[in-house]
Amino acid sequence: MNITLNGTVHAVDDGASVTTLISQVTGRNLAPNGQAADGRKLGVAVARNSEVVPRSQWFVTALAEGDDVELVTAVQGG
Amino acid sequence: MAGTTVAGVAGTARHAAADPFIVDGVHLGSRLIMGTGGAPSLDGLGAALIASGTELTTVAMRRYSPAETGSLFQLLVDHNIRVLPNTAGCFTARDAVMTAELAREALETDWVKLEVIADEHTLLPDAVELVDATEQLVNRGFKVFAYTNDDPVLALRLENLGATAVMPLGSPIGTGLGILNPHNIELIVSRASVPVVLDAGIGTASDAALAMELGCDAVLLATAVTRAQNPAMMGEAFKHAVIAGRLAKAAGRIPRREHALASSAMEGRAEFL
After folding, report:
1. Could you tell me if B126 and B117 are in contact, meaning their C-beta atoms sit under 8 angstroms apart?
2. Which helix (H) or strand (E) holds B44?
3. Which of A27, A40, A44 is nearest residue B106 as measured by Cβ atoms?
4. What confidence tens digit (pLDDT) does each residue in B165-180 have?
């Protein structure tokens, strides 16, 4: 199925969770609690259809066709 | 006498070290908060941050890009520098609250530098949206570091709404014009019971020293270091400037006088016939 990720069309498996999407995009394995499996900080957050998805809910939140997902991280800024 | 001087200098150094910047119960060893915007490379930025001695540094929240995996966040974690996410680029309270929520999830901190700007030309805070966003964020449990105009009335309003710190601008972001209204900054400091951080407009070290002499608790700057010809050297200059200004404020400056006042005694002069 297709979702919109950061403004562009992005293909994910049907019923994929937010955790699956973040792993796919960042190349990091995630534990069910939303922390990176390697123990280092992940530093990203997700909004789905303009609602923030808390880290604790990533694993149990299934994406749906046409979802609008924003995946953000810290960058340089004043 | 030389011995006395050395002891005096050592005492001063101890004073500076034992003078932490306490905000939200957290003790920071430096009163210089650094921004990270404007640095051409992560390596150069890292060197400047280390030279500045900062222990708290702002970041912006933007879309994740797999291409940029030399992560700023990791750099700050590696150097044990606390992160202060900002809401830069937000024009409305709604966008600022959303950005703060994302930052809290991503960076696992409830501290936020609240920036709600009116337009891209001036980058000045929009007071109405700023007040609205402060109220909403405080209600959601955020520790709000409110970037504000140098308006003593607005600063007090933000404090009364529950802001953790108020951060008046010296002059517009990125201008390097220094502190355009020192009287207002002094007035804000004199009425505040939360930390006051001079934020924005700093051009060079003397501007930061002045902010501290006016009674500010800390200084926040980015461009003055990241776009200096030698960012690491400028970072070090600001480290000393903030300490110098803080010491000068505590030491108590002499009153300004209209006429000269000799420091050498007139009595006992030799007489030449």
Report:
1. yes
2. helix B42-52
3. A44
4. 999 999 999 999 999 9
